[in-house]
Design brief:
Two copies of one chain form a homodimer. With 603 residues, chain A is of the alpha+beta class. Chain A contains 15 helices and 21 strands. In chain A, helix 11 packs parallel to helix 13. Chain A starts with a helix and ends with a strand.
Chain lengths: 603, 603
């Protein structure tokens, strides 16, 4: 019943059933039935709507791994797998749009088609099913399609093995991991090698939109469409790790420095531009026009997870945590059935929320519905991101109430966690095992004063590369209490981030806070509010907000009609008490204005 | 040989011949020849490329009015008019795309087609030709097309008279003014009345993109695609004035308050978003991602000109001046043959200039080439915007060396102006006339200390609604010296403009200044530069920059790797001397970074 557990419960009871329903109403299943002959009429929705089906299937498969007796879910998975199987061509090809609408253009417009992108999500669903031990038919369908792609694209003289939207690369590596079938890995590598030579038709958006402007090993800046870039990076790490390709891994590490050094929001969101859904220039991080697509935050978690697995570096877990608790969590309403596609850090007074790409509140579905089922699959597998093992022991990266069991080199270990994280930094771990092992506990980058008690005895708490490492024999059972002090932090951005100059953000633990109109007097315009960065910040609680923050600030006079004036004005501000709530909870009370970065009284 | 004169000379010798050449190479003329049968092959370029032809013709016609013996220009106009005449259908229809490519969809997709938009530019070219007394064939072609539209769209039971891209409205009113033929005006009014009811297909961009979301009389916010909105507003004023429609004029005035109160850059540019080339929310005015399309600044001049004519209000002339000297002038290179399509106020260090919509330097042409020929036609007619007459006299709005002759109520007046404006605020006017008249001289909003000498005698200089009004008998000839003091102004934006918080801009007279990398040491990153808003500012001169500004500031240390940090850092800055150049001249030395809004040492 921790934070993650409640999130997963909401996902299982709210988001996933909602996604399943939408597959019916949006036309995604209808399109597959057009192929099987079970339906007639027009193709509906986006040309890559098959991926909505696959992502929802993946979420269902992960969920079935923990609740295998859910008959409704099993029925959905089995019936949908059967539909996919029926829609699959004899040769293994499976794509409703290119089968029903454009059969003559199969594989002919890879810059646009999303055929491999959809195939990638099909394969990921199959990998989840294989790991959950369900839906053998789904695994068979995915393998048939993967074998077709290997056959068609995998030889030296094969056509170009590229898709405008990456995603297939990680999927093929994952399928290789599940099956041990090397040609899948080789094809993924081939795809990476062929990318970046301008082979895709970049006419409409340019090559960099598709990450086809520079060979992936030579890139030193993230560029173009954010989700495509991040999925590609996850694939780069996967291939690098499985093939021992240091050059490829170095490229991913270089791009990580670029992305997280100058192109990431404080919420972990990425994508500074609505135009092209793209990364911006270095330090171009507007709060109001932040695109921060939900799928990009999900992709960032996936990429950082792979970097973490490859290196054990805590910085990657820090970024996973930042994105999860802010950009990802904030995308979904408290009822689990309304979503943001873009995740701004400032919704202006007077905002025109009529556009789907920048609405004033979460919407139940989108014409391009990539995000909701992507959330469903991530959250359904969230527990899998909390801990890892290596040759020497167990590493705990993310803290939430629950239990982890593992066996390392013949030694069994179980860690039961009790905590109110992220509302409270106290994490109590009851550890029992069958022998000696390293237990590594991550100290988040935001925590400068961790403390540790082992069976009540204080221990040295100097982190080693971001982790407290305890080596002991766990046979007797031990209680470890990690206390991650969570003072409120007043955060500033790098001075080159023009968009938030003279502003601070409040943060506590992994949570970024924001000021919402709902907590201001009705006649106060949010943009006239200032915060005193030196004032004391007090914890309060609001309905559904365990820890809100209250501090002092000021209210500027309206500022007059002149948009520009000569001289630097002295504004006679009046005192104002401010309340801030966690960013991830914004927009659950009213669709009013919100801002994360608050101008200071001194700035 | 004043500022405007040199600009017009560059336009006549650089920009216009360049546009004429591009009509050949871009395919715009080729498309018309497809229709006439003089060419074969594919339709090339944009589906509205006819408008490039029409705009270039309009520019040529304006130019022929002042240099009627230019044989090359006459030959271009006559041969192109003949081509248009030949391409015109028997019924009067003229559009190369819908004739050559989509004949079955004529008038069927008005949200997309730009058929009337192109017709509007054809008519504007004809109006210019009629006023210049050239190319009678062009006038005939335009009238035939206008008559067809009146016939097809002008009756009570006619189809919807709307085009997704406004522009036709002003054109029809202008044609009415030239011909006195009332049905043109009535059709323009009909178009305004039908707009705003969601009748256009707004599927892709939404109704507000097309200003079809609210009836024009009820609108209280500018919205959507900026050029469309501004052309529509110009048409609203034209129709309101010609029909005495106060309600319609009030709507335009209301939208003016909105646009210039919260959605205009200090350069006069408009359009805060690359996505949809659109207005943003109130006070959403990012410097780096300013779209500020050149055509929008041109449209703003045209709209403000109409507001000025309708009211005599100096604020409209202020906005014309601001846009002309900054957003419009800055769009063109010193050689007159390279252009910006978007006009940002900040080009970041590390900017990716590979996209045509945000290049690092001016380009010779664009795949959507609306701006260059639009510039050509505006600049060719620039002298026409400097002064007006009414029942009582002559009003001078814009100052540049040259002569104005007019006759008001039987009294002739000639004003010869000598000035180095905008580099110097001294304007010497030699006035001779045949009797008593009001001479009104605009005092720009940026000038708080005008002074006036009439034949060497100081006069009271309290402006009346932004104008100094001199009523006298001009028969004897008078020398008027208006001195518009031009101290350097340190300008701040409204506190709600988040994007430039803690920044100031330097301005002098009508010119906004900027800091360019070209004037900084090579190893200084522009984003690390700060300005001391209290430091003295000194005039200097640089090659091709008559008045540059030098002042004191500071250089921050690079700021470290952390994108976010706890606490408000104290940065140990080192002193730095800054040079600023007029914004309109930026990018003529190197494609390096530039910024108008400079963070202060105190902010």
């Amino acid at each position: 019943d921790g934070f993650f557990g409640r999130w997963q419960h909401r996902n299982a009871t709210g988001t996933l059933p909602h996604c399943v329903d939408q597959l019916g109403t949006s036309g995604a299943l209808h399109n597959l039935r057009l192929v099987t002959g079970e339906a007639t009429g027009e193709f509906r929705n986006m040309w890559f709507a098959d991926s909505d089906v696959h992502k929802t299937l993946e979420a269902a498969a992960w969920l079935l791994a923990s609740q295998p007796d859910d008959e409704r879910l099993l029925a959905f998975v089995d019936s949908t797998a059967a539909l996919l199987s029926k829609a699959q061509g004899d040769d293994g090809y499976l794509n409703s749009y290119y089968t029903a609408v454009k059969p003559e253009l199969r594989w002919q417009e890879p810059h646009y088609s999303h055929e491999m992108y959809c195939a990638g999500h099909l394969i990921q669903a199959a990998v989840a099913a294989a790991r959950a031990g369900v839906a053998a038919e789904l695994v068979a369908v995915a393998r048939r399609f993967a074998d077709l792609m290997v056959d068609h694209f995998g030889k030296a003289d094969s056509p170009m093995a590229l898709d405008g939207h990456p995603g297939i690369e990680t999927a093929l590596v994952e399928l290789y991991r599940v099956t041990g079938h090397r040609p899948y890995l080789d094809l993924a590598r081939r795809m990476l090698d062929q990318r970046g030579h301008g082979l895709l038709n970049g006419e409409r958006f340019g090559s960099s939109y598709l990450q086809d402007h520079v060979p992936v090993r030579q890139a030193d800046e993230v560029a173009g469409h954010v989700v495509r870039q991040l999925y590609l990076l996850a694939g780069m790490v996967d291939v690098a790790v499985e093939t021992g390709d240091d050059e490829l891994f170095e490229a991913a590490r270089r791009l990580w420095e670029d992305a997280f050094g100058s192109k990431t929001y404080i919420t972990g969101a990425q994508g500074s531009r609505h135009r092209d859904e793209a990364f911006g220039d270095p330090y171009e991080l507007p709060a109001d026009r932040a695109y921060g697509e939900t799928c990009a935050a999900i992709a960032s978690v996936q990429w950082n997870w792979r970097m973490l697995l490859a290196t054990g570096g805590s910085r990657y877990a820090d970024e996973m945590e930042r994105a999860l608790y802010n950009a990802v969590a904030g995308s979904t309403s408290l009822d689990g059935t309304h979503f943001f596609y873009s995740n701004p850090l400032h919704l202006r007074t007077g905002h025109d929320g009529s556009h789907e790409d920048a609405p004033s509140q979460r919407l139940p579905w989108y014409s391009c519905a990539c995000c909701p089922p992507n959330l469903a699959r991530l959250v359904a597998s969230l527990h899998g991101y909390t801990a890892t093992t290596d040759d020497t022991g167990l590493q705990v990266h993310l803290y939430s109430a629950g239990a982890v069991r593992a066996e390392v080199d013949g030694v069994r270990i179980e860690v039961v966690t009790r905590t109110d994280y992220p509302w409270d930094g106290r994490v109590e771990l009851t550890v029992t095992g069958s022998g000696p092992l390293d237990l590594s506990l991550r100290v988040p980058d935001w925590c400068s004063e961790p403390s540790l008690l082992v069976d009540g005895v204080p221990l040295d708490v100097t982190p080693d590369d971001g982790y407290l490492r305890l080596r002991r024999d766990w046979s007797a059972g031990v209680t470890v209490v990690l206390d991650l002090a969570m003072p409120v932090r007043v955060v500033t951005a790098h001075p080159r981030v023009d968009a938030v100059r003279g502003c601070v953000a409040l943060a506590r633990g992994p949570l970024v806070y924001c000021v919402e109109q709902a907590d201001l007097p009705a006649d106060v315009v949010l943009e006239d509010v200032r915060i005193d960065p030196a004032a004391a910040v007090v914890h309060t609680a609001l309905p559904a907000v365990p820890v809100a923050l209250t501090t002092e600030g000021a209210l500027l006079p309206p500022g007059g009609d002149a948009l520009y004036r000569t001289g630097v004005p002295e504004n006679a501000a009046t005192p104002l008490t401010l309340t801030a709530v966690p960013y991830f909870l914004w927009g659950n009370r009213s669709p009013g204005p919100m801002r994360v970065w608050i101008p200071t009284t001194t700035g």
